[in-house]
Amino acid sequence: RDINPSPSPPALGGGAAPFDPRRLRFSQEELRPQPIARKARKVHVPEEQKDEKYWSRRSRNNAAAKRSRDARRLKENQISVRAAFLERENAALRLEVAAARRELQRFRAILARYEARHGQI
User: Fold this and answer.
1) Which of 15, 49, 96, 121 yields a CA-CA distance of 20 to 30 A from 86?
2) Where in this protein does the record put region Disordered (predicted)?
3) Residue 73: HSE in the Cβ half-sphere, 13 Å Cα cutoff
């Protein structure tokens, strides 16, 4: 079986090592859907209270939210690439099993003809 994944886009790498769907295994915890967190009510902050501390906190929160979104997107992309790879591998293995069954059937027929001609082995 010759199943080679296409080179994945850099968005799937996420780190120093390139993403290889043949090697990566996801734990049950990673494959479990993430619960949808209830968002806190938005609290309107009056303009006069938006000081440097407020904007610093907002900036850090926005950066953390972006990292979280990017990490989730990366994981979802890796899972979909791995699933596609496994589907292709499964199809190839099914073809291989079907060919092996046909070959086994052919050998059984040859053996049956031999036994009919020369007696049981």
Assistant:
1) 15
2) 1-20, 28-73
3) 9
**8 A C-beta contact, residue 12 and residue 78:** yes
- What pTM did the predictor assign? 0.60
What are 4-23's pLDDT values in tens digits? 555 555 455 555 577 787 78
pLDDT digits (tens, 9 = 90+) for 71-117: 999 999 999 999 999 999 999 999 999 999 999 999 999 999 999 99
